[in-house]
Amino acid sequence: MKKTLAAFLISAAWPALAQEAYVVGVSAAMTGPGAATYAPVVEAMKAYLEHVNAKGGVNGKPIRLLVQDDGAEPSRAAANAKKLLAQDNVVMLINTSLSSTYAPMVSEAKRANVPLYFGGSVCPKETYPPADPLQFCSSAFGANLDSQGSLNFIKAQSKEPVRIGFAAMAIPIARAEIDYAEGLSKTLGMTPVEKQISPPPAPDYTPFATKLKDANPNWVFSWSPWVSQVRTFEAMRRLGWNGRYLTWAHLNAEDELARIKDGEFYVIGTNALFQDNLPIHAEIRAVTHRANLTYPVTYLTEGFIAGMVIESTLKATPWPPTPAKVLAAMNNLKVDMKGLRGGPLEWTKENHFRTRQYYRVWRWDPSKNAVVRVQDWQAIDVKR
Amino acid sequence: MSSSGYFRTSYARDAALVDTRTQKAWLSVFCVALAAFPFLAGPFALDLANQVLLTSIGAVALMLLTGYAGQISLGHAGLLAAGAFTAGILFKEIGASIWITLPASAAVGALIGFVFGLPSLRLRGLYLAVSTLALHFLVIHAGQEYETRRGFSTGVVLDSPLADARAWFFVLLFASAATILFSLNLLRGRTGRAWRAIHGREAVAAALGINVKAAKLSAFVVSCTLTSIAGCLFAYYRGFVSAEAFSLFVTIQYVAAVIVGGIGSILGALLGTVFVVLFPYGIEALMAVLGFADRLSSVIFAVNYAAFGLAMILFLVFEPQGLVGIWRRVQAWFLLWPFKQKPVGK
Amino acid sequence: MQLAANIAVLAAIYALIACGYVLIYRVSRVLSLAHGELMMLGAYGLAVTASLFGGHPLVAIAASAALALAVGFLVYGLLMWRMTGESVLAAVLATIALGILLRGAMILAFGTQTQYPLQGLGWTNASIAIGSARISAAGLTLVLGTAAVYGALFVFLHASRWGIRMRAAGQNPLLAAQRGVRLHGIYALAWGLATFTGGMAGMLIACDAGIESTLVTIGLKAFPAALVGGLDSLLGALAGAWIVAAAEVLLIHYVDPLLSDVVPFFVLLAMLVVRPWGLFGTREELDRV
To answer: A204 and A100 in one domain?
Structure first.
């Protein structure tokens, strides 16, 4: 109550300051489970948009990003969405939180007819073609596509028949993906030998790793939150397994490769690593340094990309903005990734994910004592 | 306590919920205010009110079980999940409407309540709390398994029969009022007296001829049925069901509502609910007023969490009788003025 | 053989955490549900001292152990002494509230990123071969450490003055107080020791896997181990830990890995139905008029 009263007084006294901006709102898991994955994304997004405002904003107006913490709680996410839509009149709603928060935010967005953009959170299937009219996604992960890219890589890399093991955390989204990957592996001529699903709070991953090792795979694919991926791997190594492990590159992949220092630990991802030292990486460093972010700079690519997407969308939205105009801009978007991804991010009316998904694979090279790229951008067309 | 000069001259008057003219007058003013509220309040306040009403059903149910019958239960979130998942499963599998899922949730709640209550026949206090905790984890696990096996990895979406927040306000108000009236009636009858007796001293209650086993089980069954209904309403209000929404923290929030409100009082359950639901928003407003809002906006959840823990500790240490205790003290101050103490012997 | 090693490590984890629950319950009849958070605090303490005493890992470890002990005393001195004599629910709720407060404070103080204290100490978690099984260095330390802790506690409780006083205070507080045993001191000592062992468990798990929010849930999973053995028996905690760990590992290996999350609670329920006071616990007193 006091907040709205204060806001009312301020806006009455200084009308110019309060009204003239593109207002967007994000509900994010800034704390609680998954915060390690989503908080850096939001901070980088905020820093980028502040940088854009410092350069003059878009179409001469600043972008105001309102951040609400939902702690990965669906009820909080719903309340945040209601507040952002009803009180703050945002023209775009953003979700950077766990998948359990999707359904309430989707229903709120539908009710208000405002586009919902998943910036950094796992893309729901509704953004794949044929896409739900209001849901958009730019996040790196792609259900089913990640498995396709990964298994294609494994097939390309192996000269001998592949005995593949699977590991995932016991959350519905990871299990669904690993089940899909298992089915896909059979069609590619691989032999799935073992699948281990570990519950999140496992004190020791050795029992799961024991089961996996006993099945004697030469490759293991894991798609889950980082903690379960890396701990399963470390446990398997300690048991004396010498095979090759392919896993999804989360935000901390670059730093973790350097910490683990294992030559047969591969990560697959869609975002370029900082070791490429592109001009855009220098820009990320500068922007986030100015914003005094506490996260390692290598974690911030995804958030930066989300910021770039928001900037492009709003640039294509003529003033004064309305949700309908923003939606029109998003249905016809092409954002130059400047090397951060394999190609530009394109959205169409049918496809709210992207028209092409590009994958790279990296590993640590002990002889060079550095992270090396094993596969350059491989494109997969995203069709119905 | 009531003002001086008022005497109850029959059992009916003694058991009545509202007896003096002043009470009736205040009650009607309150009802008018409640009816007018949705038309005067903004959408945010309306949503908060709906949340308070929805939570109050579960809180009153827990108050019956823990506050009156004295059976500690840490499995409350499991019951809410059971009700919500029943609604979700029936909707997805056979397309049932709310007129089927609501009674079904109540039946499921009664059944689970019976199961939850069985340990109470042998265990007490701590051990009972632990057994309910274990059952909570089992229910949640079952919910998660359903979600995964049937492919609803982001949760089960339900079609809500109502979309308008104002309509929901009246529905929830009706449900909450019905729960409160039902509970009050139960409490002033034989069942309520039996519960109070077993809460006081079980051996004495048994010696007085009260069927302790039946009383305990009935407490569990009634409480869990009400909670399950609340869970079903929750599923329809939010329009979706997912296992992550029913964590241990939800149970703790309900238990906190009961304790902070004041054990052994329905009014306490209501006051506690208002406190628990509005607390995070109060903290945010406080942060904004104190000027920390920007610096802490990204960790506001942690601040809420810590503040909630601190508030609970302060209540437990300094106000063991809870908000109801404060309410009664304020009431006494007004009623006794200019005197400070109640007369000796009254 | 590998299975046995896995069971041993998991049992050591559960036993070390469970002895904290048992110590506090045995002495003051309070169930501390803040134990998981105190474990995590111990792990963060190690991360902090590791970065403070960069080149001296042993000093860092000793400092963090002392810190854990001090925190236990503080918790009793600031909060739990006020809860003595209150109802069971109030005391348990106070510990739950403390846990919530600590969790929020830890996020505010340390952020949400995973931290690796082992790196700060400058050691690596090597793999050690024992027969045909392999075990990590942290795992081996856990097993040996737990054995040492239990041995020390046993000697302390049966042979030293303060230990005997603790047992007396646990058996009959009124009589012990009348005999001159300072109850508040005993309770503070119990909390200090419990937090010390819990902190140790947290530190060792963090060395194996890094500090994360799941550490708290592990604390809750160890609780069935304490209950199965009997909440006021250390020997019971050890036995309970073995039973629960064995059930978990064997089920993961032979049946379904997903069950490992709920197995401790199944075992708990079974125990509560058959023998609520655990394998080695004392029967709770009957209700007398």
So the answer is: no
